[in-house]
Structures are given as structure tokens and as C-alpha cells.
Amino acid sequence: MLAGCTPWPAEAAARYRAAGYWTGENFDAFLRDRTRRFATRTAVVEGERRWTYAELDERVSRLAAGLLRLGIAPGDRVVVQLPNIPEVLEVAFALFRIGALPVYALPAHRHGEIGHLCAATAAAALVIPDVHAGFDHRAMAARVRAQGDGPAHVLVAGDSGGEEGFTALADLRDAPLTHPAPGAAADPDDVAFFQLSGGTTGLPKLIPRTHDDYLYSVRASAEICRLSPETVYLAALPMTHNFPMSSPGFLGVLHAGGTVVLAPDPSPDTCLALIETERVTMTAVVPPVALLWLDAVDGGSQAGRDLTSLEVLQVGGAKFGEQAARRVRPTLGCALQQVFGMAEGLVNYTRLDDDEETVVTTQGRPISPDDEIRVLDDADRPVAPGEPGHLLTRGPYTIRGYYNAPEHNATAFTADGFYRTGDVVRLLPGGHLVVEGRAKDQINRGGEKIAAEEVENHILAHPDVHDAAVVAVPDAFLGERTCAYVIPRGTPPGRSQLLRFLRERGLAAYKIPDRVEFVERFPATGVGKTSRRELRQAITAELRRTAAP
Ligand code: J2J
Question: Which domains does the chain have, with CATH numbers?
Fold first, then answer.
């Protein structure tokens, strides 16, 4: 196992193998096998571009050869920040082919987050688009380099700009790598890539996922979602996020021999048009996007669309309100599937044969019979059946530790390896979970996760700030927005000046507080403690009280 990662105990690993969950397939073998079986079928579609499985595999081999030539070696980490373009598949599988490890960033990340990821993984390379959604990722990469976070190579999907150390992917595609490639030997029970945690701490944590554990979740998800070669999946959310990657996501679709259609953005105008023209059968969105789609079809701009191909709409990443959930079938004419998952592992789905009440009122049940679920009170004792409590979990695809984070792991995991999800749930008799809330210091802004402490630390770096607490405020559309309570040091900085300061520090736009309130002091915490965690709780309680009718 890669240094800095926590393996499953040998006994558990043996059990997961014996049960047939961990099959010993690695990501490179996965692509080669599906290419053999589905060679001439369409793997991925983006605008005018359509690649068959054979074309994807050929590109992967060429890029893999080019990466080796450039000096990317087996075991190297490579930060991948790409929007929804077919190169996501090409780059990820090329890295797998040479045994290098993708570190998946989001397109919204900026030099602060990307710099951290590059530094924390000692990345050999960073992969970016040139300009995306009006933002110049090359300039950002140059800045990451200038701040001393590496990496040696910047690979650009598009125009490299010709800067020293910047290479266009197009210039890397060599003669195909001769088989077998070094990556073919990648140990299936070792780490394949890193996902990013939604986080509760000052710096985002890295989630190491193995070939064995992740591919089990992909195969099992594909089965639960009944994927087949006829599946046409629309990737509407950013593809490097865990949900559209693996639940069942584009990997589930490749597993089944289906087609992945890439949407440049999740707007109803873009996506509902693609569903009609590409005859999409399934897609996955976060709750605010589902609301926009429902409204666009319900007498809105997309009312005339032919959506008859759509069989399943998955909604997850944040709690989907029951009222909206009830609108999905009548409005879109498809089944709803609620998905409650996390990049750390555990994923729950409502099943396609669950009754409608279960589908609209629960967040599903775990993928695996060997997902162990505990619902505990504040003192780690089991709550009475059906009562809300903290969700802890352990199983064949849930990590046992974050990367290089022994101190954090000591509290995020129990001694016997259960992950403390920070979610508050009720467990129903049939095994379905209802998400009731959250105990972690995280804001869920319509599915985008914000660690309060991370944003507070950036605010505290401002010279005119004495203290800061970032909390969630309820929002009808996004579920939650962020509010930063700030105690100034003397004259408060202007709001817009403070927000500019945060952007300048390289924070993703979704982490920039929606509201800033300057206050003289924070509410007392009852026990007189001054931890920011208690302050956040006190302010949240105060907000609830004042918001009450
Ligand atoms: C309430 N809260 C939810 C839901 C996630 C599939 C789907 C989602 C994610 C994801 C994922 C929720 N209702 N339906 O990785 O594979 C909140 C919980 C959870 C956290 C995880 C997947 N679905 N959540 O959202 O790592 O608080 O993964 O612990 O981004 O999102 O966030 P993330």
C-alpha cells in the first residue's frame, strides 16, 4: 500500500475477496477488457466528437506513451483539473496505463486549492484546460508554480501557450504504447487515484481509493442501476466529482458498455436539449439543478422537449426535498433515484423497484450487504431503532484513513475502522436511511461542500480581521448558503474588499461567503468555551431562533 495510506486489515481484505467484491482487476485491465467487448460501440460523445471504445483505448495508449516519454513515471501523482471533455477519460486511463495516480480536482478550484493539491501529493504534473468558462487555467498554473507548489509539468488540453514546462496534450500523443504496459501490473489492492474530501478541516483532505475497492462500487452500482450497453448517460455534473464518476457515473457506463454524453454545464437549456437529441436514458444531478429542470419543463423554457428516452433521474449530493421529489415522475416522466454518497466510500441508492413513497422520502440503502452501518448518539452508543443519530460506516469500499493525515484520522475513524461521516440519519426497518442533518462543520451549498474552518482561515489572514466564524444559513434554492461572521480589528474592511481578498487567495467561487456580517462579539456559547466549533453552533442556533416565524 502507498505510504501515507491506511490499508484494510488483512482479515477484512480476505473476506472482501472471498465474497467476490475485490476481483483483482485494475483500471487498465478494466479498459482493455471493455474495449475488447465493446470495441465498435460509442464510449463518449461531446458535441461533434464521438469516440468508440477502440478509439478511446488507442488514444489512451498513445497518450500513455507520450507521458512516459515526458518523464511521468509509475507511481507519480498527477493533478487532473478538467471540465467535461473526453480528455478526462483519455488522461485518467493513460495515467492508469502507466501506473501513475490521478488526483481529481474540480474545474472551480483556483490557485489556492490547486497549489495545495500539487504540494500535498508532490505532483509530477498538473493537467488543465487552456481557458474554460472565461477563466485562464494556464495563468493559474503559472501562479501555482510561482508560489512554489510545483509541478514540473503542466499539460494542457488545448493551446499550451508555449510557456516553459507547458505541454499540449496534442503534442504528447506518440506511437501507441506496446503491450503490456507497466500500468498493467498496477497492484489492484493498491491506491489507484485520489478524490478530494468535502472536508471539515483547514485544508482539503485527500481520499486514496484502490482499484479493488472502487471498481467494486462501480460494478455493484451499475448492477443496482441496471446499466446495459443500451444505456446513454448524461454527465451533467463535473466528471471528476465522485458522484458522476462512480455512482454509477461514467465508469459504471463504461463497465456496462454504454455511452457517456458530456454536458458542458448542468443548465436545463443545455441538458434537456442533449437528453432529447442524444436519447439519454439516465443522468445525475444535485437538488438545485433538479429544481431548475423541473421548473423549465413545468411551463418554462423547455416545456416542449421530448424527454421520453429518459428512464432515471438520479438526485444526490445534498438532501432532496420531498415536495420536489414528488414532482419528478409527473413532470419529467422518468423514475427518481435518490443517491446519498460520499467520496470516502459508502453510497446509498433508492432501488428502481422501491415503492414511490420510499423513493421520495428516503435517501436509499447501501450498495453492499457488507456495508456496516451504525447510528450512534453523542457518546457513541447506539440510538433506539429509527431515532436520529450519527452515521458511522465501514465496508468493502469505504476508506480506513485519509492520505497523510494520522492526527485527523484518529478522530475521523474509530479504533475499529468505522468512518464518522458527520451525517445525522435515521435508519428505517427496511435498511433505508433518511438524512436528517449534519454534525460536521461543513456547509452543503447545493451539493458543493465547504469546510467552515478552511474559509475561516483565509478570512483570518486579513490584517483587519480579529476573528471569523463561517456558518450555513438556510436557502430555499441551494438548501444552504454561507454567512461569515467577522469581528474586525478596529475599522472593518469593506465587504467587497474582504471578498476580493478571498478570491485573490485562490479560493473556488463557491467557497466565497454569500453574506458577511461584521459583529462586535460572537454569541456566548453557554459553557463559556471559545472554540470556533462552539461558536458556529451558537450562531447557527441564533439564526434558527431569529428565522423562526
Ligand atoms: C443528503 N446529504 C447528502 C443526500 C450526499 C454519490 C452521491 C453524492 C456524493 C457526494 C457522492 C446526500 N442527501 N442524498 O460522492 O458517490 C452529503 C453528506 C455526505 C456528503 C458527501 C456519490 N448525498 N450528501 O455528495 O464527498 O453530508 O459526495 O457525507 O461530495 O454529502 O459529499 P461528497
Answer: 27-186 (3.40.50.980), 211-438 (3.40.50.12780), 446-547 (3.30.300.30)
